[in-house]
Amino acid sequence: xxxxxxxxxxxxxxxxxxxxxxxxxxxxxxxxxxxxxxxxxxxxxxxxxxxxxxxxxxxxxxxxxxxxxxxxxxxxxxxxxxxxxxxxxxxxxxxxxxxxxxxxxxxxxxxxxxxxxxxxxxxxxxxxxxxxxxxxxxxxxxxxxxxxxxxxxxx
Length: 155
Prior knowledge:
single chain, alpha+beta, 2 domains, elongated
């Protein structure tokens, strides 16, 4: 199943991998959205070289190639990335449009580090997220009790 997602009115080609149960996103499309580059393919190529030179890391090794429909209507091999990989790639894009993603990643990483130091914070976060999703207090309590029971049974 392939879909096209809109990001600020620009299309990002996607592919759902049924076997792996995850989405893959066209790297070129995301690069185009976040950089406003007139040639996103060339930008991606140069970005891979820059990251390899500066960080010693090859972005190509964490991407896959899938056939996605190109603007000419033909199915062409395209670099794609799952969500985790895509967020790593976005970290390497020096663009004001990428900055909100980078700030969000830093915030989430900081919160997780705090939760490692104080695991009770992760329970509070889970409760808050379930409340935001409209779950009742009874549902939340049952869920948390169920998790505690599973943790006590696990080897």
